[in-house]
UniProtKB/TrEMBL annotation:
This is Chemotaxis protein. Residues 530-557 form a coiled coil. PANTHER family: LYSOZYME-LIKE PROTEIN-RELATED, METHYL-ACCEPTING CHEMOTAXIS PROTEIN MCPB. Belongs to the methyl-accepting chemotaxis (MCP) protein family. It comes from Couchioplanes caeruleus subsp. caeruleus. GO terms for cellular component: membrane. Residues 319-541 form the Methyl-accepting transducer domain. Residues 248-300 form the HAMP domain.
Length: 563
């Protein structure tokens, strides 16, 4: 893959600098970052190694503490446990007067406990005799523990001599004189405090030794912490100094480049960027200077071109203005002609539409006249039928009058019968009261029927009178409708002739309207072409004005730069 020219060309440093600082400044940004990171890593490694060494020493001290103190306490615990087992066996032996087996078992337990005490005492003596290992200085309390251990061993030996000779009845060894009977208690009273006191001194010596070891370990921890913190601070100071130097170099180069770019942003092309190194930032500053020079040359070219563009756009504006004026005059004349032709076409079309409407109206009148003639004929027939029907109605009303008379006669007879029934009921006395009531109701009904038949008679007489008048009126209507029918036939014939004449006139006017429409359409086409030409010339004039404005804006924009 090819590297860019900016990355491979030699960069000329434009400022004076220290040789060492210059060497570091010329290294790439990656190398500077790796250098700062490497120094930080070395500091971390050094501090880590120092901390690991110190922690190793603390671990060794903890191991010695476990060996010297924890193991010592374990052996002391075994010693105390053996003494307790010995006392238990001795107690069992003392209760064996009635049971020899208990006495024997007690003696065995005492022997076993003595062996455990001797083993614990030997291990403790060996641990105290060897002292701390590994060259460490945890030697506090060694002499005290040895003295306490020797006193404890002497007290155990003295106690065993008394126990074996007094309690077990064994022969005293050479050089040992058993106490008299009265002195046994005093002898045990003297040896037992020494035994328990030596054990307490051993425990105190162990505690003192453990305290000394803990104090020594704490002192080592404080020393290791102080050394680690000092090394860490020193390393961080070195790393911070290197990082600050690297960042200061980069920041100064970036500030110079940023100032040059800010000047370009404000239109100042006379402020170059300082090249302080030959690394990526220095090459960037050199590239900024080259870009600034290129922009300056471009601005100069744009300034000359904008002036030329302004002059050309002004000339173009004058030419298009004159052409637009001429085209606008032609368009106005064409519009006047188009308007007149349109008015003629509209008038002819209005006449054509009026003739067509008149033709339609005449055709509709003829149709209505024919329909009216048919309706008049139908009305004559209907009048005749109605006349006959009304005559039949008169005959029917006469028949109704006969029926009414018959009903009236029946009602009179019923009334007489009811009167006779009333008289007979009166003669019958009390037994005829019910029949008298019925006869009275029949009488009332007969009288009501008589009144109704009288009313019907009056109404039938009125119907007969109206029927005679209706027959006369319908006859007169029939004669009038016959005359109307004659008039309608005459009108229909005249309207048919007018329909033919109106059709011919409508066709002539329609043809004239078509010719006028074609003329108006052609004139409108001419006017539209003139309008289009005017519009395009106006657009050209506006474009020329925009070019002039663009040239002015371009000159203003170029004027912002100082070259």
């Amino acid at each position: 893959m090819k590297r860019s020219t900016a990355a491979t060309r030699a960069v000329e440093v434009t400022v004076r600098r220290n040789p060492v600082v210059g060497w570091l400044a010329d290294r790439s940004v990656n190398v500077k970052g790796l250098l700062a990171a490497g120094i930080t890593a070395l500091v971390a490694l050094g501090v880590g190694a120092l901390s690991v060494g110190r922690m190793s020493d603390l671990s060794d001290d903890l191991a010695i503490t476990k060996t010297v103190h924890v193991e010592s306490l374990k052996h002391l615990g075994d010693l105390r446990g053996g003494l307790s087992d010995m006392y238990a066996g001795l107690l069992l032996h003392s209760h064996g007067d009635r049971d020899p087996a208990l006495r024997t078992q007690g003696r065995k337990d005492v022997a076993t406990a003595d062996a455990a005490v001797d083993a614990a005492l030997a291990k403790y003596q060996e641990l105290v005799a060897t002292g701390p290992q590994g060259g460490h200085a945890h030697t506090g309390g060694v002499a005290e523990r040895r003295a306490a251990m020797e006193a404890c061993a002497k007290a155990i030996a003295d106690y065993r001599l008394l126990r074996d000779t007094v309690d077990f009845g064994e022969e005293p060894p050479a050089g040992f004189t058993p106490p008299p009977v009265e002195g046994i208690s005093a002898a045990f009273a003297e040896v037992m405090p020494r035994l328990f006191g030596s054990l307490a001194e051993l425990r105190s010596a162990e505690d003192a030794a453990a305290t000394a070891m803990a104090d020594a370990a704490a002192e080592k921890y404080r020393e290791a912490r102080a050394v680690t913190i000092a090394a860490l601070l020193l390393g961080l100071t070195i790393a911070a100094a290197v990082g600050f130097a690297v960042s200061r170099m980069m920041a100064r180069q970036l500030r110079g480049t940023s100032a040059a770019l800010d000047a370009v942003a404000t239109g100042d092309l006379t402020h170059p960027a300082e090249v302080r190194s030959s690394d990526e930032l220095g090459r960037m500053a050199a590239a900024v200077n080259e870009a600034r020079d290129g922009i300056r040359r471009t601005v100069e070219t744009l300034a000359a071109g904008s002036r030329t563009l302004g002059d050309s756009s002004q000339r173009l504006t004058g030419v298009t203005g004159r052409i637009a004026t001429s085209a606008q005059g032609a368009a106005d004349q064409a519009n006047v002609v188009a308007t007149a032709a349109g008015d003629v076409s509209n008038n002819v079309q209005s006449v054509a539409a009026g003739s067509e409407q008149m033709r339609s109206s005449i055709r509709e009148i003829a149709q209505n006249a024919q329909d009216a003639a048919r309706v008049a004929a139908d009305a004559v027939g209907a009048a005749e039928v109605t006349n006959k029907t009304v005559a039949k109605l008169g005959e029917s009303s006469a028949e109704i009058d006969n029926v009414v008379k018959a009903i009236t006669s029946i009602a009179e007879q019923t009334n007489l019968l009811a009167l006779n029934a009333t008289i007979e009921a009166a003669r019958a006395g009390e037994s005829g009261k019910g029949f008298a009531v019925v006869a009275s109701e029949v009488k009332d009904l007969a009288q009501e029927t008589a009144r109704a038949t009288e009313d019907i008679s009056r109404r039938v007489e009125a119907i007969q009178s109206d029927t005679v008048k209706a027959v006369d009126t319908i006859g007169e209507i029939g004669r009038i409708i016959a005359r109307i029918n004659d008039y309608q036939l005459t009108i229909a014939a005249a309207v048919e002739e007018q329909t033919t004449t109106a059709g011919e006139m409508s066709r002539s006017v329609t043809e004239a309207a078509g010719g006028a429409s074609d003329i108006a359409a052609n004139i409108r086409g001419v006017a539209a072409s003139a309008e289009t030409t005017t519009t395009e010339l106006t657009e050209a004039e506006r474009t020329a004005a925009e070019l002039a404005r663009l040239a002015t804006d371009l000159q203003s924009a170029v004027g912002r730069f100082r070259v």
